[in-house]
Amino acid sequence: MPQKGVIMTELNESIPFVGFVYDDNLMVVQRQTPDAIGARQAVIPFRSISYIKITAIVLPKAYTEFGFKGTLPKV
Question: What's the superkingdom here (predicted)?
Fold first, then answer.
């Protein structure tokens, strides 16, 4: 699955990312360019994520591998 998108936090902060790693509780995202204070990475607790926007094309098969059910239209 491509690792490019935007995370929206519960504080309405949008964090664009080009890569991530995670464990059971946290996600570390890497930005392509530094934010206003120079940070290129952010550590975000899963409970603080409101939603994730995926900006790359993802094949529907990737979602079914994560356990999602149903079908998406072909683009």
Answer: Bacteria
